[in-house]
From TrEMBL:
Subcellular location: Cell membrane
Keyword Cell membrane: yes
GO biological process: transmembrane transport
Membrane topology classification: Multi-pass membrane protein
Organism, scientific name: Paenibacillus rhizophilus
Pfam families assigned: BPD_transp_1 (PF00528)
Lineage: superkingdom: Bacteria
GO cellular component entries: plasma membrane
Protein's name in the database: ABC transporter permease
PANTHER family reported for this sequence: ABC TRANSPORTER PERMEASE PROTEIN MJ0413-RELATED, ALKANE SULFONATE ABC TRANSPORTER-RELATED, MEMBRANE SUBUNIT
C-alpha cells in the first residue's frame, strides 16, 4: 500500500495546474468561436456576411495548400520586419541618449507626445506624397507606427535606472561604455522589452494599412482583395491568420523577456 503524505493530498501536480490554467484561458475564446460557428448555421446571422468559423478555417487551409498564402506571408514579414528593425535601430540608441540626458528629454518630450498621439493612418497620405506607392512608403508607415513604444519605453527604463548602482559603478572606475552595458541597459531591459512587444503588435496592425494601396502581395492586400470580390470566407481566413501571427509573435517576445530578465528572479530569491 502506497503511503501518501497528508500535506500532499491537497497539492496539485504541475501538469494538472498547467492544464487548468490553459482551460481557464481558453474558455472565453472557445465560447466566442462556438458562437461564431453556431450563429450562421442557425440562421441568426447572414452566412454570407459571417460564414461559420469552420468555413473560414477551411478557406485558410486551401490557401496554404495552393501555395498562395506563402507568398503573401513572405512579403508581409519582409515589410513589417524591415520597419520593425529600423524602429529598433533608431529608438534604442536615441532613447538611451534622451533618458540619460534629462535636459534634452524635457525639451523634446512635448514633440514626442504630439508625434506619438498623431494617428498613423491619418499620415498615410503624407507618406504616399513623399515616397510614392512603392515599398518605401509602406516600410515608412510601419516604422512610424512602431518607433514610439520602443523609444518611450527606452527613455523610461534608462531614467529609472537605480542612481545608487550607477554611483557605485562610477566610484569603482567603470568606463562609460561599461556603465551602459553592465549597469544601465540591464536595468532598462524589462522596459525596453515591453516596448518591443507593443511595437511588434503595432507592426502587424500597421501592415494591413500599409498594404491597402499600391500593393500586389501581402496579407493586408490579400484581405482587401477577397473583400472586394466578396470571397468572405477567404477574407476571414486571412484575418484569422493575422490574429494567430500576432499572438505567436507576442508569445515569442514574452519568452525572450523571461529569459533576458532571469536576473530579477535571482535577486528576489536572494
Amino acid at each position: 500500500m502506497n503511503y501518501i503524505h497528508p500535506k500532499a493530498k491537497g497539492k496539485k501536480t504541475p501538469v494538472l495546474s498547467i492544464l487548468k490554467a490553459v482551460a481557464e484561458k481558453s474558455a472565453v475564446m472557445l465560447l466566442i468561436l462556438s458562437a461564431w460557428e453556431a450563429l450562421p448555421r442557425l440562421g441568426l446571422v447572414d452566412p454570407f456576411l459571417l460564414p461559420p468559423f469552420s468555413d473560414a478555417v477551411g478557406s485558410l487551409v486551401r490557401l496554404f495548400q495552393s501555395g498562395e498564402m506563402f507568398r503573401h506571408i513572405a512579403k508581409s514579414l519582409e515589410r513589417s520586419g524591415l520597419g520593425f528593425l529600423a524602429a529598433v535601430a533608431f529608438s534604442i540608441p536615441v532613447g538611451t541618449f534622451m533618458g540619460w540626458n534629462k535636459r534634452i528629454e524635457r525639451i523634446a518630450d512635448p514633440l514626442l507626445q504630439v508625434c506619438r498621439n498623431t494617428s498613423t493612418l491619418a499620415l498615410y497620405p503624407v507618406f504616399i506624397l513623399f515616397f510614392g506607392l512603392g515599398e518605401t512608403s509602406k516600410i515608412a508607415i510601419i516604422l512610424w507606427g512602431t518607433v514610439w513604444p520602443i523609444l518611450l519605453n527606452t527613455i523610461s527604463g534608462v531614467k529609472e535606472a537605480d542612481p545608487l548602482l550607477i554611483k557605485s559603478a562610477r566610484s569603482m572606475g567603470i568606463s562609460r561604455i561599461g556603465l551602459f552595458t553592465k549597469v544601465v541597459w540591464p536595468m532598462a531591459t524589462p522596459s525596453i522589452l515591453t516596448g518591443l512587444r507593443l511595437s511588434a503588435a503595432t507592426a502587424i496592425l500597421m501592415l494591413v494599412a500599409a498594404e491597402m494601396l499600391g500593393a500586389d502581395r501581402g496579407l493586408g492586400f490579400m484581405i482587401f482583395y477577397y473583400q472586394e470580390r466578396y470571397a468572405i470566407p477567404e477574407m476571414f481566413g486571412g484575418i484569422i491568420f493575422i490574429a494567430v501571427l500576432g499572438v505567436l509573435i507576442n508569445f515569442l517576445l514574452v519568452r525572450l523577456e523571461s529569459r533576458m530578465t532571469r536576473w530579477k528572479e535571482r535577486i528576489v530569491k536572494g
